[in-house]
Amino acid sequence: MSATILALDTATEACSVALMVGDKLYSRSEVAPRDHTKKILPMVDEVLKEAGITLQELDALAFGRGPGSFTGVRIGIGIAQGLAFGADLPMIGISTLAAMAQAAYRELGATHVACAIDARMSEVYWGRFVRQADGSWSELDAECVIAPSLLLEHMAARSEDEHCWAMAGTGWQAYTETLTALPLRTEQSAVLYPQAQDMVVLAQQAWKKGQHVPVEQATPCYLRDTVAWKKLPGRE
């Protein structure tokens, strides 16, 4: 039996909320770069009312833990913690990059997804994900923040990958020339931003594995405080 989970995300330009009750999904989403604080709580109220439940009836609250905009990630985790604290709920942090991989699977059936979010400062938040038989995602390239030119330099030393990778995220548009020069076979997808409706699916998987924490232990993932190239395979 699936858990009743509310997910919310404000880590990028998109603002979204999703609620899963049994096999029913209720969701709201809007691209609103500067209105997250105005949009997110009304969206939460709307999906709860549509489902006819209260926060206290949830099993857990999931949130987009990043990477993404510093301000957006902070807004999301702050609101999520406030809601979870008030309703005494455990929390589940979901990677925004993994959520985009799940979106590419939902829309295209893609099982190999290369995710790149524009991180500004001439860098991208990067990660490559491979879907497993149980529906979870494994990281082929660990999440990192990296300059596209450095990523190209690193991957040029590898043999070309035989799989076709779905491109997800705003980074592919922001750094088209460099990223499309990567030694990868790629296909377009319409996935630009992470969505709560995909996070809630990943949160269900995490819940079944006991991967939830008390409110005070919920943490964001900024990646800026790490050295990007050390996060890539062979650079540990």
Distance between the termini: 40 Å
Total number of strands: 10
| Sequence stretches where pLDDT stays below 50 over 5 or more residues | 226-236
The rough form would be described as globular
Q: What share of residues is helical?
A: 25-40%
Average pLDDT: 93
Q: Class by helix and strand content?
A: alpha/beta
Main β-sheet: number of strands, strand sense, barrel status?
A: 5 strands, mixed
The gyration radius over C-alpha positions equals 17 Å
The side-by-side strand order for the widest beta sheet comes to 3-2-1-4-5
- The number of helices is 7
> In what range is the share of β-strand residues?
25-35%
Q: H/E series, N to C?
A: EEEHEHEHEEEHEHHEH
Plain-language structure description:
By secondary structure, the protein is α/β, with parallel strands linked by helices. Helix content is 33%, strand content 28%. The protein has helices at 36-51, 70-87, 96-108, 148-156, 171-174, 176-179, 196-208, and strands at residues 5-9, 14-21, 24-31, 60-66, 91-95, 112-118, 124-131, 137-146, 164-168, 185-187. It is globular. Residues 226-236 have low confidence and may be disordered.
Considering the chains and any ligands shown, give keywords for the structure.
single chain, 236 residues, alpha/beta, five-stranded mixed β-sheet, 7 helices, 10 strands, 33% helix, T6A_TsaB, tRNA processing, Gcp-like_dom
How do the strands and helices of this protein lay out in sequence?
Layout: E1 5-9, E2 14-21, E3 24-31, H1 36-51, E4 60-66, H2 70-87, E5 91-95, H3 96-108, E6 112-118, E7 124-131, E8 137-146, H4 148-156, E9 164-168, H5 171-174, H6 176-179, E10 185-187, H7 196-208
Parallel strand pairs: 1-4, 4-5, 6-9, 9-10
Antiparallel strand pairs: 1-2, 2-3, 6-7, 7-8
